[in-house]
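Bumping my old thread because nobody answered last time. Still need a sequence for this structure:
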């Protein structure tokens, strides 16, 4: 364990994201082109879009932080907007719930059904009901590079040394593609490093709770995964590569931004066929 490794409970989301330490999502920018890290900090955000309903974010709050869901989301009653009275009622409701995300009846019902579907899975219920904490913030300094790091697991089962992360996906059968596209294998490795830095012992398990947003036989499918050893090892290698790259950028004061475009295999095959 290093002296600068610790965790904080109850840290506001905004404070966590404003911290100077590098997160996994920032590692993803560094992996593509270090200049994108600076871009992500300085590019303007569409605040209206940021406040819009996102199924995965809402589901995360509903399952893992129900008090946060109650505070930030509200179901809109049915208003007859064809009448002046209905329009006035809708406007008053919006004013009364300013700052909250207003859910349509369809979105609210889908969220509730998905939550119940998730909790019907015995392992998911165990994860939710076991002694633990949601959104614990980890901070540590990487001993090799000196880079300050951070992570924030969705839920930690404190007695079992488990991290659990909730992921919503359009098609559960394609979740392995999401694991590659969104670099979940890097998240596994990075969060595991953070846990060990703070606690001085390895994380026992990193579990992904995958929830499908597309119904199958009338149900929202749910499965729980752990990554295979080779994926975890590749994630650890990628964490090392990205942290070394970032440390080198800090040392030289240069953050390269030009990327070599990756061409689709179909195009490369056409070139190979002409050779």
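Sorry it took so long. Here it is:
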């Amino acid at each position: 364990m290093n002296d600068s490794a610790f965790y904080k409970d109850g840290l506001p989301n905004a404070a966590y994201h404003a911290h100077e330490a590098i997160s996994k999502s920032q590692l993803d920018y560094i992996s593509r082109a270090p200049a994108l890290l600076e871009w992500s900090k300085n590019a303007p955000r569409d605040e209206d879009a940021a406040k819009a309903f996102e199924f995965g974010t809402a589901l995360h709050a509903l399952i893992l932080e129900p008090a946060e869901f109650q505070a930030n989301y509200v179901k809109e009653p049915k208003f007859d907007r064809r009448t002046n009275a209905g329009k006035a009622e809708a406007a008053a409701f919006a004013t009364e719930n300013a700052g909250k995300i207003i859910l349509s009846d369809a979105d609210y019902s889908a969220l509730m059904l998905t939550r119940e579907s998730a909790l019907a899975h015995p392992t998911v219920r165990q994860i939710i009901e076991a002694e633990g904490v949601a959104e614990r913030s980890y901070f540590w300094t990487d001993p090799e590079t000196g880079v300050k790091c951070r992570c924030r697991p969705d839920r930690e089962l404190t007695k079992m040394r488990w991290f659990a992360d909730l992921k919503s996906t359009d098609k559960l059968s394609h979740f392995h593609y999401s694991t590659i596209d969104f670099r979940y294998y890097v998240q596994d490795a990075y969060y595991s490093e953070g846990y060990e830095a703070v606690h001085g012992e390895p994380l026992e398990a990193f579990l992904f709770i995958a929830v499908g947003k597309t119904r199958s036989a009338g149900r929202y499918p749910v499965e729980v995964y752990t990554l295979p050893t080779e994926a975890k090892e590749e994630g650890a290698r990628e964490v090392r590569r990205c942290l070394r790259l970032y440390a080198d950028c800090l040392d030289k004061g240069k953050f390269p931004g030009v990327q070599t475009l990756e061409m689709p295999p179909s195009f490369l095959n056409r070139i190979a066929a002409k050779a």
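The first strand starts at residue 6 and ends at 8. Let me know if any region looks off to you.
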